[in-house]
Amino acid sequence: MEKAHTAEHILMASIKRIAPEAAAVKVMHDEKGNTLYLRIKKLDWDIVAEAVKAANRVIDEGRAVKEWFFESLEDAKKTLPNLRSYDERVTGRVRVIEVEGYDYSACARKHVSNTKECGFIIVTGFSRSGGDLYQIRFEVGGRAKEYAADIIALHMKISEALGAPQKTVLNATLNLKQEAEDLRRRLANLTRYMLEHLNPEELYGTKVYTNLYRGVDRKALMDCAGELISSVKTVALLADAQKDALVVLCRSKDLTFDCSLLLKEVLQEFGGRGGGKPEYSTGSVPSKAAEQVLGTLKWKVKELLAKV
Ligand SMILES: [Zn+2]
Asked: Which site from 16, 77, 159, 190 is most exposed, i.e. has the minimal number of CB atoms within 10 Å?
């Protein structure tokens, strides 16, 4: 606790050297770890890495940690212009903790007497709580060293999985992400193209669009089905079989049968499930049953259209 807390003074002072406007708001230490709440314009991993390296240099230098007392915060600030304090919380006699020649901070908690006792500090994560308020999670000593070893191993496993040298892991990942986005967009375009060229079958004066696809973009498929039924006397019965099969059954508003009831009933028969609204419903079923499901649904739709 004293180690983690003293290391926090050093870390915060190191952040302040990079971002002078930064100010600590609160520090918490518990069995889950340590959290430093601070205000800073912008925090990123480059700033964190610089601050952590500087903090560990100060820890290794074995600087003395001393205490000073002043009658008031005003007095303290006159003597120590660089004093850090969370002003609103400090009243009356003030205790100042000095990390020899590196940092002066008003604080009432317990500290170690030499920075070497902190051993090692590492930031394990940070997040923005809103505005310029951030929280930084950190570990010190043995726990920090174990964390570092685990994270390096994880990083190397990612590098191996990507087949990219460890220095290029970030770029390789960003490229991969970009590529995946491009492919998804192209698949969505292809899906749209295929659906735009799907010819309906005329059943009792109603256009029925039916097809079983394998590996299309499902969102595009559902969107297109929705667009198809904006014309009158139209039914769309479409499926996409991948690991499981997505089945969409929808109809134009002028028709009256309940797609949701019909889909639910047929999918259940084949070990799937589904539902939705009377005019637009979706569901899933094991892929191997997709063809049969579509056949059954089409036959039932035909029956219903014949009755009208
Ligand atoms: Zn303190």
From this structure: 190
- In this prediction the pTM is 0.74
Per-residue pLDDT reduced to its tens digit, 67-123: 999 998 888 888 888 898 876 666 788 999 999 999 999 988 999 999 999 999 999
The total number of structural domains in the chain stands at 2
CA 8 to ligand 1 centroid distance, Å: 8
Rounded distance, CA 299 to CA 145, Å?
A: 67
Q: What CATH number does residue 25 fall under?
A: 3.30.980.10
User: How far, in Å, from the CA of 253 to the mean position of ligand 1?
Assistant: 69
Environment of ion ligand 1 (residues, CB < 5 A): 107, 109
The CATH number for 291's domain is: 3.10.310.40
Q: In the numeric block, which tokens belong to residue 161?
A: 């999985």
